[in-house]
């Protein structure tokens, strides 16, 4: 995640706390990004928060599980500061995955994140990847194991990611079928 995404997330949290934006229940209509670059059907019964080109969905709250859909600009897509690099529309899906995961690992609470598998995946009609990851987070001195599924692809409009994460115990397996069904509805516009 780059500095812009971190700033957008910080502003969104401030707006949430002030009551200016709110979570909305997901219905059967496809969710479209504010820039109109993608759409998908999120799991019905979940709640969604739209933040520009990012959608965050959760059934129980983001501390227990979350499904985030993002569009990242090709320019300065990876890294931070002077170490920023661009993505390209025809980027190798495995390389795309590795760069995205490296950025994720740089965020707080993701230091232990590691890829357990990467497979080719058609996302929105484009060659992409589906990766499974695992991590361990500390909460009140206890280690909580998390599992993640990360989908990604790129086109001329940017890099697109779908990321699901939840604790291994109870939540991950329970909601994974809903997330996988949602991923099949992802469309690039």
General description of the model:
The chain has helices at 3-18, 93-105, 168-183; strands spanning 24-25, 31-32, 38-40, 47-51, 54-58, 66-72, 114-123, 126-139, 142-155, 158-167, 187-188. The chain is an alpha+beta fold and 189 residues long. It has an 8-stranded antiparallel sheet, with helices on both faces. The chain has a 3-stranded antiparallel sheet with strand order 2-3-11, with no helix packed on it. The protein is globular and about 40 Å long. The two termini are 23 Å apart.
List the helices and strands and how they pair.
Elements: H1 3-18, E1 24-25, E2 31-32, E3 38-40, E4 47-51, E5 54-58, E6 66-72, H2 93-105, E7 114-123, E8 126-139, E9 142-155, E10 158-167, H3 168-183, E11 187-188
